[in-house]
Amino acid sequence: MRKAHRRRVHIPQVCISGFAPNRYTAVIGLMECYRKYITILLLQPMKFCLVGFLFSLIFSKRERINTVMKEKYNVGIIGATGMVGQRFATLLENHPWFHVVALAASPRSAGKTYKEAVGSRWLMDTPMPKSMEDIVIMDASADVEKIASMVDFVFCAVDMKKDEIRALEEKYAKAECPVMSNNSAHRFTPDVPMIIPEVNAEHAAVIDAQKKRLGTKRGFISVKSNCSIQSYVPALSPLRKFGIKNVLATTYQAISGAGKTFDTWPEMVDNLIPFIGGEEEKSEQEPLKVWGKVEGNEIVKAQSPLITTQCLRVPVSNGHFAAVFVNFENKPSMDEIKKIWAEYSGEPQALKLPSAPKQFIHYFEEENYPQAKLHRNLEGGMAISVGRLRPDTLFDYKFVCLSHNTLRGAAGGAVEMAELLAAKGYLD
After folding, report:
1. 139/78 Cα distance (integer angstroms)
2. What's this model's pTM, rounded to 2 decimal places?
3. Closest to 10 (Cα-Cα) out of 24, 36, 29
4. Residue 19: HSE in the Cβ half-sphere, 13 Å Cα cutoff
5. Which residues are catalytically annotated?
């Protein structure tokens, strides 16, 4: 029988916003120490009634947080030695909700420490987390049951054939281990949600149907979308109420999307490659699933808009661009569009998830913004940058979008998805 492995944590470490303790939580902690005396004081004269009311609100909010967030989840990273796996490691190093206890990769890495297995192939700008250096790598395929017994769920970013990935992720799910997948293998499985948390959080509802199909109580698979669509789908999503008819999008994708750096892929320096295998199909079809609806036991894709894309590899280290052209049934004004973008938020913002950007979409009025080097790391790399909205000669409007492909587009998006599912109780 599978044991519960969630580790209790002291709640003040999970602050109001979901991040590590700040000045606000320190003040709250100090007030808690003297709560008895403050309460006596506040019960005296009526002139303190307003202060007393505010004090009670603070503590009632604090108590609600205690109710919601009482546990820290033990997690594993499957495919820990690859670029996305490394990104997962850096993002989870000091995560307030998730604690890495297991790392897995291919058989050739199994039995080595994380530091030994990666060696000189560490690709992140920041060092390997000290807390993970000596974790012994397990075999991602052979040690499924062992890993499932150690963790509450896993993040998965493996380099395997699609049929092998599908089988592996279902094996973890059937071992009662939820899978937060960065892989494409299950993106079009009808009862597997493909979640951009700010856009289609409601798709999590299909998880119950998936569990019935798999015969599990806890185990399921949830995937994030392709990194290329994370630039333009968020910008288009709040505009769908105007009836988007057709979209043309050309993506300019960074080399890290291929798991490469300029050191490992020197032929990309001063170069552009007008082809990325499978990317155009993903960029045209995945938005329709994201914009679809849960009907019965599956997610039914949206029937519109018609989307056509071209996907280019460009000599940029991180950051995917999209040049977007769009037609509407009911054309909004440019001011309406900018206002909608500025006000757009989703459940991650309402729930104050740790990885959620405060401002999801940032619009820049400068004609030469956004830029990859300047804006890809906006709000921890989790925000979407948009600019150059203007009328077009063939379409109603055109604009450009930017997202960080390994943060918002890959590991960061999967971590935020896990936070959303944790907040909704799917990982308990």
Report:
1. 9
2. 0.85
3. 29
4. 11
5. 227, 320
Domains of the chain: 19-68 (no CATH), 71-226+412-423 (3.40.50.720), 227-405 (3.30.360.10)
Question: Treating both helix axes as pointing N-terminal to C-terminal, what angle do 35-42 and 49-68 enclose, rounded to 10 degrees?
Answer: 140
**Structure token digits, residue 132:** 């993970």
Residues contacting 371, CB < 8 A, separation 6+: 402
Q: How far apart are CA 372 and CA 405, in angstroms?
A: 11
Contact 114, 135 (CB under 8 A): yes
Give the Cα separation of 187 and 198 in Å (integer).
Answer: 18
DSSP of 266-333: GGGTT--BS--TTHHHHHHHHHHHHT-EEETTEEEPP---EEEEEEEE-S-SS-EEEEEEEEESSPPP
Query: How far is the C-alpha of 357 from the C-alpha of 349, rounded, in Å?
Result: 7
Residue given tokens 């109603």 in the structure block: 396
Contact 317, 261 (CB under 8 A): yes
Residues 29 and 23: their CA atoms lie apart, in Å, by 10
DSSP string of 193-261, one letter each residue:
-B--HHHHGGGGGGHHHHHHHHT-SS--EEEPPPGGGGTTHHHHGGGGGG-EEEEEEEEEE-GGGGT--
Tell me the sheet residues that pair with 119. Answer: none
Please list the alpha-helical segments (H only) found in 43-121: 49-68, 83-92, 114-118
Q: What is the pLDDT along the chain (428 residues), one digit of tens a residue?
A: 444 455 434 333 333 333 333 333 333 343 443 444 344 344 444 444 444 444 444 444 333 333 344 479 999 999 999 999 999 999 999 999 999 999 999 999 999 999 999 999 999 999 999 999 999 999 999 999 999 999 999 999 999 999 999 999 999 999 999 999 999 999 999 999 999 999 999 999 999 999 999 999 999 999 999 999 999 999 999 999 999 999 999 999 999 999 999 999 999 999 999 999 999 999 999 999 999 999 999 999 999 999 999 999 999 999 999 999 999 999 999 999 999 999 999 999 999 999 999 999 999 999 999 999 999 999 999 999 999 999 999 999 999 999 999 999 999 999 999 999 999 999 99
- Reduced to 3 states (helix: H, G, I; strand: E, B; else coil), residue 340 is helix
Determine the Cα–Cα distance for residues 218 and 249; give it in Å rounded to an integer. 38
